[in-house]
Amino acid sequence: MKPLFIIVTGFLFACLLLTGTSCQKNTDCKATVTCVDSTGVPVNNANVLLYATIKTAQGGTVTADLKANGTTDAGGQVKFTFKLPAIYDIRATTVIATRTLTGTGIIKLEEGKGSDKTVTLK
């Protein structure tokens, strides 16, 4: 009887170990937006807005509540992390001297992956 108890206990312990641990899949969606000027030089301190537009039942579009914004670093980059995949519109702006430079683009975020997009400000 004792060997059967040891075998059953060992089996239950092994099952507990195998089912008690689980792998956490990384589902974060990372976006890196790089802003450059018309000559390809990175633009520091540009304001970058990511936003989603949604089509309405009447055929128009509205901006969704889901937005994110940031400012580029010295290398012209700004990074965002989202929990869910999405497609975002990009609008980047900066003021150099008295001129306002703007650029637009689209970035697609996929689950567990990083996406890079370069936006040229003109």
Average pLDDT over all residues: 86
General shape: flat
**Number of helices in the DSSP assignment:** 1
**Total strand count, please?**
7
CATH fold assignment = Immunoglobulin-like
Per CATH, the architecture is Sandwich
Q: What is the percent of helical residues?
A: 10-25%
State the major sheet.
4 strands, antiparallel
What is the strand arrangement across the widest sheet? 3-2-5-6
Unreliable stretches covering 5 or more consecutive residues = none
Count of discrete domains:
1
| Assigned CATH superfamily | Carboxypeptidase-like, regulatory domain
- Terminus-to-terminus distance: 83 Å
- Given helix and strand content, the structural type is alpha+beta
What amount of the residues lies in strands? over 45%
**Mind telling me the C-alpha Rg?**
24 Å
Q: Report the order of strands and helices.
A: HEEEEEEE
Broad CATH class:
Mainly Beta
Structure description:
There is one protein chain. The termini are far apart. This protein is flat. With 122 residues, the protein is α+β, with helices and mostly antiparallel strands. β2 (47-55) and β3 (61-71) form a beta hairpin. The model has no long low-confidence stretch (mean pLDDT 86). It has a single domain, classed as Carboxypeptidase-like, regulatory domain (Immunoglobulin-like, Sandwich). It has one helix at residues 2-20; strands at 29-36, 47-55, 61-71, 77-82, 86-96, 99-109, 114-120. The strands form two sheets. It has a four-stranded antiparallel beta sheet with strand order 3-2-5-6, with no helix packed on it. A three-stranded mixed beta sheet has the order 4-1-7, with no helix packed on it. The chain has one helix and seven strands.
